[in-house]
Amino acid sequence: MFDFLRRRRLLRRGLASRKTRRRRTRNELLRSLEAAGYVKVIVLAAFIAGLAFLIFSGQQPEPTKNFVIALLFFATAIVQLWINQPRTFSQNSRVFLVFGTIFVQLAATKLILVLSSEHAFKFLTPEMGWLLAPYAFAPLVLSVLLGRNHGLFAAVFVSLWSSVLFGKIDAPLLVISLISGFTAVYLTLQVRRRSRLIRAGVGVGVAIWLSSLSFGMIAINLFPPMDNDWGMIGLQSALALGNGIITAMIVGGALPMLEHLFQITTDVSWLELSDLNHPLLRRMTIEAPGTYHHSLVVANLAEAAAEKIGANATLCRVCSYFHDVGKLVKPQYFTENMSFERNPHDDLAPTMSALIIIAHVKEGVDLALTHGLNKQIIDVIQQHHGTSLVYYFYQRALQQQEDARAGGKIMNIRKEDIPEVQEESFRYSGPKPQTKESAIVSLADIVESASRSLEKPTPQKIEQLINELIEERIADGQLDECDLTLGEIRIIAERFRFTLMTMLHTRIAYPKHELKFTPVEDQKLRPDVMASLRKPASAPPVSAA
Fold first, then answer.
1. Rounded distance, CA 311 to CA 309, Å?
2. Rg (Cα) of the chain, in Å, rounded?
3. Can you tell me the distance from the alpha carbon of 309 to that of 290, in angstroms, rounded to the nearest whole number?
4. Which sign, positive or negative, has the C-alpha torsion 78, 81, 84, 89?
5. CA 398 to CA 401: how far, in whole Å?
6. DSSP 3-state assignment of 339?
């Protein structure tokens, strides 16, 4: 209310603009639900209720005993998730994703095996049901969305729960499910293309086929009498292989929806976002080519460093492309885009110059929201300068203040009339980098910018520059809120040094090549060519052309 009245007052005086900059709004209700303990209890209770329904439905011996065993598995799963994946356990949406995906697989397995045992369809025998159960669904989904540790978690516990759905613990079902789940996780360690999912599906299908062959579900007699039903064996083999492939296809189709629903971006989506034909990047090539080239070099530095410490390298590359997109609003005020004729900051006060420089972060967020960029890209745009100081213009303002004070003594101007230089006016609004990837992009940005000022770069100069810049960031507290360790920072600095050395290496000074021109008269040319080479009488001399 008071901000609105203050803004109206400033507008009447001509001291504010009617334009309002867009900000990424956070839904407070969703944030409160994400961390609420009662929501987690509801999700886990719903999973237990669903598990009870699957175990007590149908005709099977000792369902109560099996349910108690399932509850013990559930308690183990909760403790395992709480200890090994505390960040996932603290987010209710991730807990819902993990247990919801596992329940979907359990429900599908129960449905298929019940239909096969009751001969609901003529071709669906109990042996066929074993081959059609989607053993790798939950491991595939969670491995791609949340990482291999979550995939292994799903593979183990979905196999344990599947084995108690039909009475006594079914050892063949348990082993086949475990082998299929582990195979799915191993083949999806790095899914950078959707074709890798199909490859993983083929691997899962082969694992199911080999396991089924080992347990005699696909009966092939290798010793006399070799009375094999090759038609049935071929059908069973096709079902086993098709099981993995169809599961992978279903997962591939569900991934975009799950990514959007749970605000997760996989490597596949990051690669799609790395397309340099994005409208903002195309604008940058025309309106701010210096910034575009700077962003490409920052992307190379950040990606190389992220790979070395095990961070998300693809995320770093994509975020680096867009981290300075706000410079499109006033590109001529940034060094890499300035013309050689004039520096526009020469006509501005240091405070105004600092405002323009600092504003590129907010303008970048505005452009990113307008073009619907990923939430993590917007976070990196906001955080890549943290709360650091625009040092050049801050020093310039201090110098002008000193000059004013020196001149004030001569002109008898009181010290109170000389405006004070406040450091806060020359700092970015932040926040500081919150993740490893955001911190890597931040460090790559300052290292690349400063490396342009090196004259005759040598390995020693590059290493000294990188170490000084990183030490300044640490001393200023800009890396306090991310989880980078000192060992990882040392590895990042070493990777920056190596990458910059390859980019800024010197070249051999080649000798000038002297061109020798042969007079036209001495060349043996055809008459028609000679005619075309004759100058008309009115032609200017060669030196004037």
1. 6
2. 33
3. 29
4. negative
5. 5
6. coil
Tokens representing 46 are 């719903």
Per the document, the length of the chain is: 545
The secondary structure of residue 539, as a DSSP letter, is P
Taking only the tens place, the pLDDT of each residue in 418-461 is: 667 888 889 999 899 999 999 999 999 999 999 988 888 888 99
Domains of the chain: 28-264 (1.10.1760.20), 285-390+427-503 (1.10.3210.10)
Contacts of 82 (CB under 8 A, 6+ apart): 89
Per-residue tokens: 87? 């960040």
- What distance, in Å, lies between the first and last C-alpha atoms of the chain? 71
Give which of 103, 130, 116 is closest to 46, Cα–Cα.
Answer: 103
Instruction: Give per-residue burial for 440-455: e unless 16+ CB within 10 Å, then b.
Output: bbbbbbbbbbebeeee
Between the CA of residue 119 and those of 114, 124, 231, 438, what are the distances in Å? Answer: 9, 6, 20, 56
* 3 state SS of 481: coil
What's the Cα-to-Cα distance from 91 to each of 157, 258, 351, 376, rounded to whole Å? 20, 16, 42, 17
CB atoms under 10 Å from CB of 135, counted, come to 32
412 burial class (0-12, 13-18, 19+ CB within 10 angstroms)? exposed
And the tokens for 31?
Answer: 């944030």
Residue at token pair 């040094």? 497
pLDDT digits (tens, 9 = 90+) for 381-429: 999 999 999 998 999 888 887 777 666 555 555 565 566 788 888 999 9
Instruction: State residue 529 phi and psi, 5-degree precision.
Output: -70, -40
Helix axes 171-186, 148-163, angle to 10 degrees: 170
